[in-house]
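We were asked to recover a plausible sequence for a given structure. The inputs and outputs are reproduced exactly as logged, with field labels preserved.

PROBLEM: sequence recovery
POSITIONS: 117
GIVEN STRUCTURE:
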């Protein structure tokens, strides 16, 4: 097994640009969060929708106003909830590509420096 890549400081000046291993671990957690949300939503979403059909508007102006606004937003909330897993997966995948680009650029700089010897 290869060791974790060292922190990258492109150009060798200033602060560390990226900690690849730590960043990749956090990106994995982002992707897992999307999967966890999707699993919970798959279990709870239908139950919420079923319960909503049983709920009346209420007996006062406040509950009526809430229900009207909720009914208007509910389809969009369901759509967004259905897309969470894919969104988090894409965020994580994009982050992993960026880490790979940092590693590639860092190696390229090392290779260039070796040609100067």
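RECOVERED SEQUENCE:
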């Amino acid at each position: 097994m290869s060791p974790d890549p060292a922190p990258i400081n492109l150009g060798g000046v200033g602060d560390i640009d990226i900690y690849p291993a730590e960043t990749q671990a956090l990106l994995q957690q982002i992707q897992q969060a999307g999967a966890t949300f999707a699993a919970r939503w798959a279990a709870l979403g239908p139950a919420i929708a079923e319960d909503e059909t049983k709920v009346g508007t209420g007996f006062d102006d406040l509950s009526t106003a809430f229900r009207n606004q909720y009914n208007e937003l509910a389809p969009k909330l369901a759509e967004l909830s259905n897309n969470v897993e894919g969104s988090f997966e894409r965020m994580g995948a994009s982050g992993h590509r960026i880490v790979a680009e940092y590693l590639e650029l860092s190696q390229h700089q090392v290779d260039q420096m070796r040609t100067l010897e």
